[in-house]
């Protein structure tokens, strides 16, 4: 017997290519610019001129009609891209022109910081209408940003099954598999023929998105295996499902980390994977589009974290942007001041050998660049789960060996350069020794900081670059000027 499942929503439209989305953004910006221009011209006219407001209203209505038509032809993700790329005032203007029935799907696509600003402009009735058009798993993604009374009102319109699904998804941690899984999937029993399965599929309006396999369950919903769609199409229709299904398949648990699921999808080239509970019952699935979102968000967070930033509206008010950026910049100022203080302790040395002032920046810069390479490699390896207690020792030794060899090679070149411009071979030797030692410092800090933060459950990328720069600058100056003081004076 084939079990019924809710048909998936149809695709709205084919998403535009990136360059077409950019063209749409430019078109929207041009229409907004014209609208602002007309408003400015009308406001400059004499007060007694009654034609101004009429002209403004007509042009405003024309631009709104053109904007509305343009937005209607775009995929929700492209509308989200446009909203994210506009200043807050223009963003609100464009948002008012979006058809109400599309509000929910667009709110799902926009970044968190844009979603919050859009929701703040909507009254409860508009929010309820937007959320009512969403599936349970989609509503769960949006619910944390909605007022509690709106979520409660939306739940009243759900079936018991949908309400149970919504409650289940919202109960899982934000970064877990349960929070990103969906419930639209095709399930069959193992004792039916492929012909029965095909007849059932023909009754559906369409297959759920990214359906590459049909899940085989028993009467208690326990997962028995999967039937790949390509095998279903080429096998004898009289064959039973049990004879052609795969029993060795990757399964996920709802409390598994979403990042680990993303790594599994990347490793095994998956399109979808079943999610089962503690007793093996099929409760949902994760698809590649969910995983792509996880990877994209993780990549964006890692990029910002390395610079000591959090995600923010690119058109956020200046005070808000300062609160986001100032803390790490102040930390960076303190670390740079420390490095400068170390250099100032060798004022006599630099005063007697002026060329040192020009060379010490090379030592610090090369150490920082090399350490940054090591740090990036470690952070990436931690993100995909390739570092553990069994291989971390070998990785540390390998990076130290590489830094030593690079130091010897690069230090030799730097030594020749120092000798050429100063005429002192002893300065070249000091330059070479300082570069080797600072490269080793960069490698040690580049590994130690992300590994330590990961060990204590922290994001390994946050602040790593600032601490690395502090170490290589401070130690670079200290090592180079210290060796110069000892051996050149």
TrEMBL record:
Gene3D superfamilies: CBS-domain, MgtE N-terminal domain-like, SLC41 divalent cation transporters, integral membrane domain. Residues 245-301 form the CBS domain. Residues 1-20 are annotated as: Disordered. It is found in: Cell membrane; Membrane. The chain crosses the membrane at residues 350-370, 402-421, 427-449, 461-488. Pfam families: CBS (PF00571), MgtE (PF01769), MgtE_N (PF03448). It comes from the Bacteria. InterPro entries: CBS_dom, CBS_dom_sf, Mg_transptr_MgtE_intracell_dom, MgtE_N_sf, MgtE_transporter, SLC41_membr_dom, SLC41_membr_dom_sf. Keywords: CBS domain, Cell membrane, Magnesium, Membrane, Metal-binding, Transmembrane, Transmembrane helix, Transport. It is a multi-pass membrane protein. Acts as a magnesium transporter. Belongs to the SLC41A transporter family. Homodimer. This is Magnesium transporter MgtE. It comes from Pigmentiphaga soli. The gene is mgtE.
